[in-house]
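Key result, reporting period 2: structure in, sequence out.
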């Protein structure tokens, strides 16, 4: 990741240029004031992706804490069994041993 550093006066003069730089590069732009770090500008897309990753990691930490406390959870095999049962109950797809993972139908893009 390439770090860009710009003085705060640049954001006042060239907001559109800095916003475009953030969107196109995906990299943050560090804004300084009087030669000291002050702000970081990122595109909304990059900000949302970062927040999603942080939230996901926090959920994983909570899951691991619960696992270490001995909280009962489902194994992968149990989740798979339950999902297949739901699919079969709703007659969405009949699975057999020979046809456990049928090929997906290809639909044209909408």
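The corresponding designed sequence is given below.
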């Amino acid at each position: 990741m390439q770090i860009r550093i710009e003085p705060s006066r640049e954001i006042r003069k060239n907001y559109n240029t800095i916003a475009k730089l953030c969107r196109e590069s995906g990299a943050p732009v560090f804004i300084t004031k009087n030669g000291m770090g002050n702000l970081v500008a990122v595109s909304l897309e990059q900000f949302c992706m970062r927040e999603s990753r942080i939230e996901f990691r926090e959920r994983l930490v909570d899951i691991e804490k619960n696992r270490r406390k001995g909280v009962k959870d489902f194994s992968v095999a149990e989740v798979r069994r339950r999902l297949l049962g739901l699919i079969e109950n709703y007659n969405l797809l009949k699975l057999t041993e020979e046809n456990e993972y049928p090929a997906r139908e290809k639909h044209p893009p909408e």
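DSSP finds four helices and three strands in the chain. The mean pLDDT is 80. This case is discussed further under Risks and Mitigation.
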